[in-house]
Amino acid sequence: MDDKRTTSQEGDFLTTAQGARLRDSDHSLKAGERGPTLLQDHHLREKITHFDHERIPERVVHARGAGAHGVFEGYGTATPLTHAAFLGKGVQTPVFTRFSTVLGSRGSADTVRDTRGFATKFYTAEGTFDLVGNNMPVFFIQDGIKFPDIIHAGKPHPDREIPQAQSAHDTFWDFVSLQTEAQHHTIWNMSDRGIPRSYRMMEGFGVHTFRLTNAEGETSLVKFHWKPLLGVHSLTWEEAQLLGGLDPDFHRRDLADAIEAGAFPQWELGVQVFEDNPEQMFAGIDLLDPTKLVPEELAEVQPIGRLTLDANPSNYFAETEQVAFHPGHLPPGIDVTDDPLLAARLFSYLDTQLTRLAGPNFSQLPINQPHAPVNDMFRDGFHQHRVHEGVAPYQENSLDGGCPFFAGAEDRAFEEAAVTIAESTKVRANPATFEDHFSQARLFWLSMSALERQHIIRAYSFELGKCLDPSVKERQLQCLANIDPELCSEVATALGLDAPAPSEELADVEPSPALSQLGESWPTT
Ligand code: HEM
């Protein structure tokens, strides 16, 4: 059976999809030269039908992207933390990385102000690992149940389908000023991080805290970071706007051109490491709250390997469009935590891909095939490409040989870390440690240079200037007052509004003392 992954679509003659040679593919079969066209023209119907079905649904978010193949090499420095074999010293693992914007459709412009996706599929010998991250270290919401809400608020308006950037901005600002946990991610968006110069010059973050297990069974908590060797660089807002019109493909062109020219982009993968304590807190920061980061001053990023992107896809659809990432694709030695945002993601990706990639067999597509041997007992379903043999697709069985499933730890099987779950009562509520929504946004503002602050002020002023509803602008100004009075008053002046005083009601929780001290130690420029 022919299982070739690529085909050049070349040959001495054209055929139907069934391999019958064709004499003519330019004229439909007609009753006489002037028609009518005959329904019996199978070739006409097959050609048009296939064309009619060339498109698949775009991703519900992150629809626009660009991808590249590459290699990841482990430094071995993570071995004390995890037994994941691909992180071993000198181990080379093939990868595919897809960068994306979040909100725009597949045909939207690259240089808009938005968060960027940074998703990497490591085809490890122990099963696929997907690190499905963003270029910002925090997320808008703390609980995945709000994901449809933030995306509905940020996507183009449902009446005219005009994106936020060119029309009214009310829904986005309405949401983030009501759900104030979103203020931290929003100030990152309003900073130069929201308009990267190049995919090659972006940091990447796993955002959530993950749990590693080493060969001795000891666990630690980590946050993943990608550091670009080219450094982090942004466009100016003027450049971003001009490029949106002049070259909407600016980022995907830049990535492909660099790789084609042999200027392979590289990133170092690193981890911030925290003790796996029962509270899952570090320096007063709740590690399960995805709207919080841990400043590198408090926990340095330890390099564990290097990614090099060295080959462009040869077929955008087959690779960049059909690749299917999932935060639950984890090799032995890496596990999830109980971050409530991550919990929803663990459900969402497979669920959406069942529609986007039409059925349950998309892991058989070349770009999604693991490089580790697969023996999953799954059968049948739409687009099944395997001809499974044997009569007993279940485990254990005594008829088809079966396999020694639970043979022991030496098999390096995936095993969930044995975490104790505290006795508790079912609730729909957040822990009190999730209630501080402003201190990290303030810390971000304080860490900026004078020029970077100017850019942030201009970005808020521009974006809020597009809001039509005055109450939305006023509520967001109230949030800015609680981040920093100077930021608030500058934006209020630009909008021609009065700057409110910080609200007691919003400043409801004591921030981490370690963070407050950090902010005080920075110069106010
Ligand atoms: C793509 C859901 C949060 C990063 C997607 C897709 C869905 C989704 C449905 C489209 C997947 C596909 O069609 O293949 C969610 C939900 C979230 C969430 C429900 C929260 C509850 C996040 C967060 C990050 C993130 C926090 C970053 C840490 C990405 C990336 C992609 C993506 C990078 C694009 C993957 C690609 O290039 O194909 N997300 N997401 N998402 N998401 Fe999320």
Task: Please describe the topology of this protein.
Elements: H1 42-52, E1 65-74, E2 92-101, E3 116-124, E4 127-134, H2 147-154, H3 170-178, H4 183-190, E5 204-205, E6 210-213, E7 219-228, H5 237-246, H6 250-260, E8 266-275, E9 281-282, E10 285-286, E11 302-311, H7 317-321, E12 334-335, H8 340-356, H9 439-446, H10 450-464, H11 470-483, H12 485-495, H13 513-521
Antiparallel strand pairs: 1-2, 1-11, 2-3, 3-4, 5-7, 6-7, 6-12, 7-8, 8-11, 9-10
Bound molecules: protoporphyrin IX containing FE.
Report the order of strands and helices.
HEEEEHHHEEEHHEEEEHEHHHHHH
Helix content: 25-40%
| Largest sheet entry | 10 strands, antiparallel
**Topology, number of strands:** 12
SS-based structural class?
Answer: alpha+beta
Small molecules bound in the structure, each named once: protoporphyrin IX containing FE
**Strand composition percent:** 15-25%
First-last Cα distance: 68 Å
Number of helices: 13
Unreliable runs, pLDDT <50, ≥5 residues?
A: none
**Overall pLDDT, averaged?**
94
- Give the overall form: globular
Whole-angstrom Rg: 26 Å
How would you describe this structure to a colleague?
By secondary structure, the chain is α+β, with helices and mostly antiparallel strands. The protein has helices at about 40-50, 145-155, 170-180, 185-190, 235-245, 250-260, 315-320, 340-355, 440-445, 450-465, 470-485, 485-495, 515-520, and strands at about 65-75, 90-100, 115-125, 125-135, 205, 210-215, 220-230, 265-275, 280, 285, 300-310, 335. The strands form two sheets. Strands 1, 2, 3, 4, 5, 6, 7, 8, 11 and 12 form a ten-stranded antiparallel sheet that branches. Helix 2 (about 145-155) runs antiparallel to helix 3 (about 170-180), helix 4 (about 185-190) packs parallel to helix 9 and helix 11 packs antiparallel against helix 12 (about 485-495). It is globular, with a radius of gyration of 26 Å. The mean pLDDT is about 95. Protoporphyrin IX containing FE binds near residues 119, 325 and 348.
